[in-house]
Amino acid sequence: MGPGRAPEKWLLRVGLVGLFIATPGVTVGCFEGFDDGTEAGAFAWFTMFIGGLLVGAAAYGGLLLSLNPQSRKERRRRTVALRSLQAPLATADLTYSTLLEAATSSAGDAPRQKPPAPATDDRGRLVWWRDRALLSAFRLPGIAGWTVFVALTGLSGVLHLFGGTGRGLLFLAASACGLVVSVFGARRARALARVAVSEDVRPMRWLLLHEPHDGEAYLLLYEADGDPDETAPLLLQIATKRQARRLAPAGVADVHGLPRPGAALVPWIDGAPLWTSHRVTTLDLTSEDDRGLLTYLMGPVPRDARA
């Protein structure tokens, strides 16, 4: 079990389970009514309460994790160190050339599509609210759709179409929470778009590594000038597997942003930005946890290489 088994993944699963539990209740309530004196009403309110509780807990936990990237990074490192079946390789076995060989061997033979061009206006400026890849990196389309659905349900109750005014106001309050999360995510997306066009840019070598189990993809970034093994590499998790399928196993990218721990970086590869909501991590190859992380991402290693 590797870094892909991060807490945010379990929170997403809990939220999806909550939605599946609440959906039948909403459907029954819309057609049969939300009256407490009926079996249909009791079923609707019970399922919506349980589902809403799970969704709310998952949303709250995800918000705390997004506000504290340091704790998320440390949890991911501990997960790899404790649960990886491979012993961490030595620093001498985790050189750029060795990792390049691992990235090349793990690359599939499927044809790679060119990444979509960034959304720009008539003057060529980046328009973040029209960039579907950027919005998807922060899950804004799904959050916005859920917010609109809950708001329409609450409005129907306020207008006495079904459910009553009091219950409609509860749904409107829930949609207000979704609106707050959407605004927070939109602000993060806009800030990342600013990083993508900032003047803090430098060329960096990158390697594409995949988790052996979940298939989550990571970029390993090195300085483009000089010996790459002389500086500590940076690790950046890619937001979606679809983005990773468009990438070659290695290359050179123009990386915008300040390459420091916890900062937001936007690599430009093949003329398009690679959006991700994850923060960059500086790896310390003298640390057993970080070497265990790289060993895990390299995939199965022969016994003679670990000796």
From TrEMBL:
Alphabetically ordered keywords of this record: Membrane, Transmembrane, Transmembrane helix
Membrane-spanning segments: 12-31, 43-67, 140-162, 168-186
Protein name (database record): Uncharacterized protein
